[in-house]
Amino acid sequence: MDWGAGHTVVVVPVGELEPFVLARTRHYDEAWVSTDPAFTHAHVTLLAPWVHEPSRDDLAVLGAIAATTPPFEFSASHVQQFPDGTIHLPADPPDDLSRLMRRIADAFPEHPPYGGAFGSIDTLTPHVTLDRAAGGVTVRSTQRLLADLVPTTCAADRIEVHWYAERDCRVLASFALAPIASLRR
């Protein structure tokens, strides 16, 4: 997948796993380590690539989705590997993240998840990417490295728009998920 010189990604940040994912990012390529203190390298991708230059209207749509989505939790405990070698932690249960992915994908049908490379939204597994199998990196070695962090309960409390470009990874927008009390009004 070539997404050009930069691209946007809609994510749920996962601060609980940031120490590990940041260290792995730094290990592979320092140019992809963000200097933005708000940026979280560990995340669940909701939609990527997204609008290259989001408009106020695009951001308002995401804000409206966030405002009608209550915060939730999911656990991350079982390191797995996709057929392409991506080592990840799937969200358990995936339901709330899958619904959020679906709402965002439906709002932006001209931007299929991962450019359509991995099938439809219905076949995607919400997950946190950890590493890639190669050169001694395996599911088992990754499990050992994560021993102090996993299992963990992750709090999904906001949606963010991240810009990804070499030496320029940053947060473009952040939307808090709606407190449950505000949804009952």
List the helices and strands and how they pair.
Layout: E1 7-13, H1 18-28, E2 43-47, H2 56-67, E3 72-76, E4 80-81, E5 86-90, H3 95-107, E6 127-132, H4 139-145, E7 152-156, E8 158-164, E9 170-176, H5 180-183
Antiparallel strand pairs: 1-2, 1-8, 3-7, 4-5, 5-6, 8-9
Verbal overview:
By secondary structure, this protein is of the alpha+beta class. Helix content is 25%, strand content 26%. The strands form three sheets. A four-stranded antiparallel β-sheet has the order 2-1-8-9. Strands 4-5-6 form a three-stranded antiparallel β-sheet. Strands 3-7 form a two-stranded antiparallel sheet. Strand 4 and strand 5 (86-90) form a beta hairpin.
Q: Helix/strand-derived class?
A: alpha+beta
- CATH architecture annotation: Alpha-Beta Complex
| Helix content estimate | 25-40%
How many alpha or pi helices?
5
Shape, per Cα inertia axes: globular
Q: How many individual β-strands?
A: 9
CATH level 3 topology: Cyclic Phosphodiesterase, Chain: A
Oligomer: single chain
Query: Which residues form runs of ≥5 with pLDDT under 50?
Result: none
Numbering strands along the chain, what is their spatial order in the largest sheet?
Answer: 2-1-8-9
Strand content is: 25-35%
Considering the protein shown, what is the CATH homologous superfamily?
Answer: Cyclic phosphodiesterase
What is the number of domains?
1
Q: What distance separates the N and C termini?
A: 44 Å
Kindly provide the name of the CATH class.
Alpha Beta
Give the overall pLDDT as a whole number. Answer: 93
From N to C, what is the helix and strand string? EHEHEEEHEHEEEH
Largest sheet: 4 strands, antiparallel
| Cα radius of gyration in angstroms | 16 Å
